[in-house]
Specification:
With 137 residues, this protein is an alpha+beta fold. It contains two helices and four strands, in the order ααββββ.
């Protein structure tokens, strides 16, 4: 008799696995921080700026479009700012990551980081004020 209870419990758990997997997948894809390689590169770039670290090796060639002083747009945020990355989009070798930065004044400001994949590494090309619209189909 004891085996029947264990078997039904195992069946109930097995039935819940697809639901749990779906929830985890949705959480990972819902714009969380650094879910994709280009988001990881953007996170590293922003963290180095916030920490006052070197940006060497983070800017790419970007087909001649790289703006190696793009980080200067964040000068007013102050060192040690906090940031989140609510969404991103990718088309081929180019990606944009939307960013919300809370700086020294305590209010969030929206930015975006443009990246390009070069030699299997996501490199920063530019940064701008405001978030870009991301279509979700």
């Amino acid at each position: 008799m004891g085996g029947t209870g264990r078997r039904s419990r195992a069946i109930r758990i097995a039935q819940q696995v697809p639901l749990i997997t779906a929830v985890l997948l949705a959480t990972a894809c819902a714009g969380g921080d650094a879910s994709f390689p280009w988001e990881g590169s953007a996170r590293n770039y922003l963290q180095r700026i916030a920490d006052g670290g070197s940006l060497e090796g983070l800017y790419g060639q970007c087909e001649g479009r790289a703006q190696v002083n793009a980080h200067e747009i964040l000068a007013g945020e102050g060192r040690g700012f906090e940031f989140s990355m609510p969404s991103s989009t990718r088309t081929g070798p180019e990606a944009t990551v939307n960013v919300s930065i809370t700086g020294q004044d305590g209010s969030p400001t929206l930015y975006h980081v443009d990246l390009r994949e070069e030699n299997d590494t996501w490199m920063v090309c530019d940064m701008g004020v405001g978030n870009v619209k991301i279509d979700v189909d």
